[in-house]
Amino acid sequence: MKNKTCVSCGGHISSLAKEAVVRKWARKLSNQARYPVVYRLIAGISLCAECLEVLPVIGDLICQRCGREQGKDMSFDNLCHDCKIVQEETLVSNRSLLHYNDWGKNLLGLYKYRGDERLAVFYGGLLAVTFFRYHDPSSFVCITTVPLHNKRLYERGFNQVDLLVAELSRAIGVPVRTLLQRTKETAKLSKQGGRTARQDSMREAFAWVGDKELSTLHNSCHQPYKILLVDDIFTTGSTLRSCASVLRAHLGALCEIYSLTIYR
User: Less crowded by CB within 10 Å, the N or C end of the chain?
Assistant: First the structure.
């Protein structure tokens, strides 16, 4: 383990002390075939035993569209209320690993706004665990990301999601391709007034930048193929759905878009 300091509490990480917790999460978040790889990923996460124990992992009862955790009284179609009222769904599904609580907000803020790039490896590992919990790597053509507007990119100095997907790509063996650009500067989602305002702000916010190899695949393929769209948070889904809409417009109905985020 390269990083012996917990990214959450700053305490020392003892591999021996966290062994039982690693095994517990690996059993919960994987099947028998994927247990070894998920075990290694969780063991490599830079959290001490105590912080790993209380990781706010989303449970098994989820909305099958957006991945939000549901109660035992989940509807017969396994969709949450918000997903039922979406008129034009462009995502097959979203899957996330963690609840976006105060702990997550503080830690993600440290990464996005203070540039603590050691958290890229941490979050990349969490994304890989999320992926193996729900997906098979062999079924995806490529990974792509939600792009930042050039002004926001200049302010931050880096796109936090690009660093995460580099780690994810290494872990799952699926290549990363840049397929989108952000053409419209929008306010932070936290400063927008609600679901409708967020949907309006995301309209025509992204554009296709092209990928010759993927276009060739699209023209020659006669069966559905999958693209993994990655971001850090799924809030209302407006951003991810807007990106998926552009991808489907250029790649056709055979292209299935699945999103993956750390937080939900």
Answer: N
